[in-house]
Amino acid sequence: MRMFRKKRFLLLLFIGFIILLFARSDWMGRWMYPIYYIDDIKASSLNYEVDPYLVAAIIRAESNFETGRESPKGALGIMQIMPDTAGWIASKANFTNLTLDDIHHRADISIQMGTWYIKSLERQFKERRPLVIAAYNAGPGKVNQWLKDNVWDGELDTAHDIPYGETRRYVQKVIYYYNKYKELYPSF
């Protein structure tokens, strides 16, 4: 009986060591945090001058890179764009002949529109990343109201002041994925 416990302990110790070894490896990290549609993300990021890590992090938080997703509130596609926002983006960015089905099911279209929208938010919020991320989730009107009412100062270290729990968690999640992608994909 004592010998059996010793073998079990050694086996668990060995398994723990292997897990620790693989958890620190890049390939394991990339397996756990993959980036799909890299070419589309790179092309749109380059075209609109947006950090590709930010685009990838938003996609991960929004849809986990799954096309055809629809949120309970009606947001569509890989970047979870609301139909009204998609219409606004299409008119401002001169996207023509697009349907909601394109946004919903075509990753390249959703990424292009979502990246254009991120750039629009960056201009509006002067490149302040936590504000841009919060506005992508809650809308720029809400974020401007929070700033005006001194509810939140727009800084990451005060994200706990964001009044919407969903947006508060969203900002933290996107920043987490952003940092994780920068660590795992240094040449992205």
Would you mind describing this structure in some detail?
- It is a single chain.
- This protein has about 190 residues and is an all-alpha fold.
- It has two domains: about 1-30; about 35-185, Lysozyme (Orthogonal Bundle).
- Helices cover about 65% and strands about 0% of the residues.
- It is built from ten helices and no strands.
- α4 (about 50-65) packs across α10, α7 crosses α8 (about 130-140) and α8 (about 130-140) crosses α10.
- The protein is globular.
- The model has no long low-confidence stretch (mean pLDDT about 90).
- This is Lytic transglycosylase domain-containing protein.
- It comes from Paenibacillus roseus.
